[in-house]
């Protein structure tokens, strides 16, 4: 299982990295991360929240074999991207007291488990860094760096940086489908809810651009119906939840369309979408191409891949 997870993660990350054509450079550039639990590296450890990954089995395959605040058994996507772009270390959580001095110049990770595009997503987790607040922290970060290297150098550092943003899944699993007849599901039928999410996300991405981001990798959602908790609660006979799969199928194409529109409005390619759902399904349909060899039928392969997506 650990070997399969490692190979799968590596292929996914390489796909994301090469989507932006980011070969390692002699002088590593800054890296900024925004999003939810898929990319959080420990910000929630500094918050009074129940959305924490500070106890085993989290971290059992991390180099220290201890929980780090990552919602993973080991390294997560920002860690491996950092390696690929020549970073000396993965950007520290923005709330970490160790993020000072020269380490600020590597970038920062603003992600917080439980958040979504909408401010009411994840309210059950209490104190988390919602997306609008992450962007505010990014602005605050730039003021801190300006005190070190000056305003112009800070602007150049941010403009040249790689930015990863991973958000959206929680707006379905921890909002629209959190409980039967949720407030959002009563307010919007699913197609209209997806349109609303996309319109709100566009506003946040515009703000990210205004704050200086110029090379932004935006991931879609994976196959939401195959998330382990959803598979257990909503799946039938081991199959992924059809309703959540429908949500992902509606959301991802509209996200790509919105990114294209946003780039046209700006006049250059700033935002690049990574089709993580298709990457995942490619893995399921042809696991041997990714170095995964599993005995059994396709159903068992699907179950394994569903475990990997959010673990």
UniProtKB/TrEMBL annotation:
Protein name, entry field: GDSL esterase/lipase
């Amino acid at each position: 299982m650990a070997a399969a997870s490692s190979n799968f993660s590596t292929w996914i990350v390489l796909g994301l990295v090469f989507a932006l054509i980011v070969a390692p450079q002699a002088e590593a550039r800054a890296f900024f991360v925004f999003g939810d639990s898929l990319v959080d590296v420990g910000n929630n450890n500094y918050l009074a929240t129940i959305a924490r990954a500070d106890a085993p089995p989290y971290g059992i395959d991390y180099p220290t074999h201890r929980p780090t605040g990552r919602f993973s058994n080991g390294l997560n996507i920002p860690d491996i991207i950092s390696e690929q772009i020549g970073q000396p270390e993965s950007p520290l959580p923005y709330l970490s007291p160790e993020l000072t001095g020269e380490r600020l110049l590597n970038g920062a990770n603003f992600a917080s488990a439980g958040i979504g595009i909408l401010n009411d997503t994840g309210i059950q987790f209490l104190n988390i860094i919602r997306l609008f607040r992450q962007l505010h922290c990014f602005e605050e970060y730039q003021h801190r760096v300006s005190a070190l290297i000056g305003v112009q150098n800070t602007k150049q550092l941010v403009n040249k940086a790689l930015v990863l943003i991973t958000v959206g899944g929680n707006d379905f699993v921890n909002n629209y489908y959190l409980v039967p007849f949720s407030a959002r599901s009563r307010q919007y039928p699913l197609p209209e809810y997806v349109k609303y999410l996309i319109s709100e996300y566009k506003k946040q991405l515009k703000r990210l651009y205004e704050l200086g981001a110029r090379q932004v990798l935006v991931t879609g959602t994976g196959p939401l119906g195959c998330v382990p908790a959803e598979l257990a609660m909503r799946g039938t006979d081991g199959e992924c939840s059809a309703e959540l799969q429908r949500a992902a199928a509606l959301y991802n194409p509209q996200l790509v369309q919105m990114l294209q529109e946003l780039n046209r409005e700006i006049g250059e390619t700033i935002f690049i979408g990574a089709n993580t759902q298709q990457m995942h399904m490619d893995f399921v349909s042809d696991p041997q191409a990714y170095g995964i060899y599993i005995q059994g039928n396709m159903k068992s392969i699907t179950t394994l891949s569903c475990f990997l997506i959010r673990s």
